Each structure stands twice: as C-alpha cells, then as structure tokens.
Amino acid sequence: MTNILASYLTLAAILFCIGLYGALSKRNAVIVLLSIELMLNAVNINLIAFSKYGVHLSGSDTELTRSILSGQLFSLFNITIAAAEAAVGIAILIALYRNRTTTNVDEMDSINR
Amino acid sequence: MPFTITGESVAFFILALLTIGGAVFMISFTKVVHMVVALAFTFLSIAGIFIMLEAEFVAFVQVLIYSGAVSILMLFGIMMTKHDQEESAVKRPVHTLGLWVGILSLFGFIFYSIQQSVWVPGEYKSIENNVLEIGLLMFSEFVIPFEIASVLLTVALIGAIVLAKREEEPK
Known about the structure:
The complex is a heterodimer of chains A (113) and B (171).
Chain A: H1 2-25, H2 29-53, H3 61-100
Helix pairs in contact in A: 1-2, 2-3
Chain B: H1 7-28, H2 32-52, H3 56-80, H4 93-116, H5 130-140, H6 143-164
C-alpha cells in the first residue's frame, strides 16, 4: 500500500505545477486568483493523503484518531483561509476595475489613479 | 512492486484523470467563463479524491466552498468586470520559456524526491463517525485556531464590503 501514497503526491504535484503555470502566465486577474486556489487545493490533497497513509504516533486508540484527524483539520483551516483570500481578492479586483477599467494584470502597473 | 488492478486504483485513476483534465482545460480555454467552469469540475473531482481518502467531511466542505462558493464568486467577479473577455496569449517569448523551464524543473525535482523516498506504511484505522470526531477535536484541542479563523473570516467579510463598496460622489 505504499505505492498509492506516491500516486497521490504525484497528482498533487501535477496540480500544483498547473496552478503555478496559470498564476504566472495568465493575464486575467480572476484566472490568476483561481490558479492560486488550485495550488492551495493541491496542498490539501497532500495533507489528507498523509493523514491516511502517513506514519502516525503509535499510542492509544484516541491518540491515533487525533493524529489522523489533525491532517483533515489542517486542510479545513486551509480551505477557510483560501475562501477569505478569494473574497478579498475579488473585492480588490472590482475596486480596481472601477478606477482603471481593466482586469489584466499586466496593465496594473501604476499605483496612482 | 507489481502493479495490481484493484477497485481503489481504478477509482483513483479515473478521478485523477478528471482532475488533471479539468485543470488542463482551464489552462487551454480562451473564454474566461469556460475556464471557471472547467476549474469547478476539477474541484468536484478533488472532492471525490477526498472521499477515497476517507475524509468525508472535508469532501463535503470542498463541494460547498470550492465548487459552490468560490466558483460562483469568481463568476460574479467576471460578470461585474469585462464578461466577454477572451484570454489573449502573452507575447513575451523569454518569459514563457523561463516559466516552462522553471515549472518543469520544479515538477522534476518533486517527482524525483517522491520516487526516491522510502514510504513506511503507517498505522491506520478508519474512523466510524468522521464529523463527530472532527467536531470534538475542533472544540477541544483546536479551539484557538478555530476562534482565530472566525476572527479572520469577519475581518475578510468587512474588508471585502469596504473595498467593493461604491464610493459616493463628492457634492
């Protein structure tokens, strides 16, 4: 059963690289935000794969449960931060569009109005 | 290690194909709305992968937050800006080449490390009542991160409203 952990990690690495490519090459700011979400999701896959297949502290039954579930709780907090980041990012984008009428990141090169 | 075909590996293969397919379509589409829909598809497939890893609660949260809330938020963001915009290719060959080299070397590095590592099979037991155990843990040991997350969500809510609020015209 050790092989399947490597496949999950490889899947997460592929998703992270696609997200990184999108974040660095796309011009539309909404797509850049979405690519960052994809990268955060790849991290979540890693966390949950390690919570199932990783090495846990051997101890009592409750300690094992706690050790397994803390990986899932980490990913839950990660999802919370990602949602907050998406909301603030879209708000900044709308405020910027109102001032500059552009959503392309390569035209956002000035800090005055 | 001989590759054996089990139900788990078949399900993983299909879900991984859907996930990567959605992400690749997101990169290759030109209309912005189509890209968001392709990525919503990816988020749904990742929820399926979470169910395979026996993290049911995280899978439901993934469906609610990502393929529900975040996708709709991004669609709103597109509709409130230029909604018929098409992604035009960047005309910077040096930048694109450097990006490809960097990302391929990053992926090669991660892949090499994954293949080189020796994975010790860990102890695991499936948890009967996933949501109950997560709730107990969240309100006992992780209560301070939970409260900090609630403060952060309130700050993000107020900040987003203040940022996106239309400024009144000075009279």
